[in-house]
Design a protein that fits this description.
single chain; about 0% strand; membrane; phosphate transport
Length: about 500
């Protein structure tokens, strides 16, 4: 009896080809995850090359080139962790897409860092540790250790989805490395008290301002019978406030200016009036055909929210670029590698490394924490998000003008919490809101409506307490953790290289 041939459900060649296809798909999936780190490594190399071009024939060139790589690494970590606060509210409110937010933030971060970043850089580079009491060689290694420790800590926090303060990290690292190198004497404790007090007051101030703006928006626009007419009246005023404040700040950045305080105020008022006229025309055109509903207000607040996010990105670049390039500026000055560094002002190439690094870090690694800040702490619509962004921007701008390295993370998240806690209070206690909700309920039902607050208060808190406690814990631990890490890294560097 002849032997029956074997029956193959699928040819062997087809199986092998399927395996190759699966391997190819797996390779593409894995390699896609390696694109961002690869681009980051290329930027580190370019930063070293960029620094080398400027200092190759000057003393301490090798130390400066290594510090440039660390500063670039630190800047990318700031972009990945910290810049999320600038656009998180706008993305959470769906006023712009993730791609639009990333591009706007990157552009305005670079502008803020290069135009207005030098004052806070001076504080980080020379005011925390007294450079007169520390030998230049030792100061260079202190700043190297601080950069590495702060960058590693922020990298860990970003991986854990914790929006920690990059300002806390670098200030704690500079103190830790300084104390580890020469003891506590050279640390300027008066400046540290000023910085610490700003850390405490700035998020509270941001929260209060954001809550006040939201109260004004709710009272003057949202709970009015004719919302669209109220928005046409008051949205241009809010835009004028934003434009006027930013104009005054920009005039202050002109070092050669001899303008008095009155002249600066007049510049701001004039710019605000021009902005008000233009905004009235634009808002009136946008309001045509809109229904008298809260959802229509989202349209009218979209452009102001995008403008406030751009303003906040500018302010963040002006303040937080110091966290990356402040130590680099101190190293450049300590080893005499840049005679152009006059009166503590950092060279422009130093600011560019920080500005470009922040933008690249944001573009490559920023989206995860943008979603956390913008969507998971409290629910944001364009009106609430505008209050958060404008409050944070004004607070950071004032701090940058004073040369104070405040935490943008503190202020932005404090503003988000301020908005959320104010909504909880307003839901329970606002007579205007209760009366408005009753009128609205009576227009849809003939029987006696239930208390409009009952369901919302019973359903959930408007601020998620778990995120509140997690972020507070991350803030508390950042300074001591980065300080201890910086001291250990300094001791290792001293043992190996000095």
């Amino acid at each position: 009896m002849p032997e029956r041939p074997a029956v193959l459900t699928k040819r062997t060649l087809d199986k092998d080809l399927d395996k190759l296809t699966h391997v190819e798909d797996a390779t593409k999936f894995v390699s896609r995850k390696l694109v961002a780190p690869g681009i980051g490594l290329v930027f580190l190399g370019l930063a070293m090359l960029f620094a080398g071009v400027y200092v190759f024939d000057r003393p301490g060139a090798v130390l400066v080139v290594a510090a440039a790589a660390l500063a670039a690494y630190m800047a990318m970590n700031i972009g990945a962790n910290d810049v999320t606060n600038n656009v998180g509210a706008a993305v959470g409110a769906r006023a712009m897409t993730m791609a639009q937010a990333l591009v706007i933030a990157a552009i305005f971060e670079i502008l803020g860092a290069t135009i207005a970043g030098s004052e806070v850089v001076k504080t980080i580079s020379s005011s925390i540790v007294d450079t007169v009491q520390v030998p230049p060689g030792t100061l260079g290694w202190i700043m190297m250790a601080a950069l590495m420790a702060a960058a590693l800590w922020i990298n860990l926090a970003t991986w854990m989805n914790a929006p920690v303060s990059t300002t806390h990290a670098i200030v704690g690292a500079v103190i830790g490395a300084g104390v580890g190198a020469v003891g506590p004497a050279p640390v300027n404790w008066r400046v540290m008290i000023e910085i610490t007090s700003a850390w405490v007051t700035s998020p509270l101030l941001g929260g209060v301002i954001a809550a006040g703006l939201l109260f004004m928006v709710k009272t003057l626009i949202i709970y009015r019978d004719d919302k669209i007419a109220a928005a046409q009246r008051w949205v241009p005023v809010l835009i004028a406030m934003m434009i006027g404040g930013f104009t005054s700040y920009m005039v202050l950045q002109l070092e050669a200016t001899a303008f008095s305080s009155l002249a600066i105020i007049l510049f701001g008022v004039g710019a605000g009036c021009v902005g008000w006229i233009a905004a009235r025309l634009f808002v009136r055109r946008q309001a045509v055909g809109l229904e008298n509903r809260n959802s229509s207000l989202r349209v009218l607040f979209q452009i102001p929210l995008i403008g406030s996010a751009a303003l906040l990105s500018f302010a963040h670049g002006a303040n937080d670029v110091s966290n990356a390039v402040g130590p680099l500026s101190a190293i450049v000055r300590a080893v005499g590698a840049s005679p152009e560094d006059v009166q503590g002002h950092p060279p422009i190439w130093v600011l560019l490394i920080g500005a470009l690094g922040i933008s690249i870090g944001l573009l490559l690694f920023g989206p995860r924490l943008i979603r956390l800040v913008g969507e998971q702490i409290t629910k944001l619509n364009p009106m609430r998000a505008y209050c958060v962004a404008l409050s944070t921007a004004f607070t950071v701008i004032v701090a940058s003008w004073l040369g104070m390295p405040v935490s943008t993370t503190h202020i932005a998240v404090g503003s988000v919490f301020g908005v959320g806690f104010f909504r909880e209070w307003y839901t329970r206690h606002s007579k205007r809101r209760i009366a408005y909700m009753r009128r609205k309920a009576e227009s849809f039902a003939t029987d006696e409506p239930e208390d409009p607050n009952t369901h919302e208060v019973r359903r959930r808190y408007l601020v998620r307490r778990s995120h509140f406690m997690t972020i507070i814990a991350a803030w508390i631990i950042t300074v001591p953790a980065s300080a201890a890490l910086a001291a250990m890294i300094y001791w290792v560097m001293f043992a190996l290289f000095v």
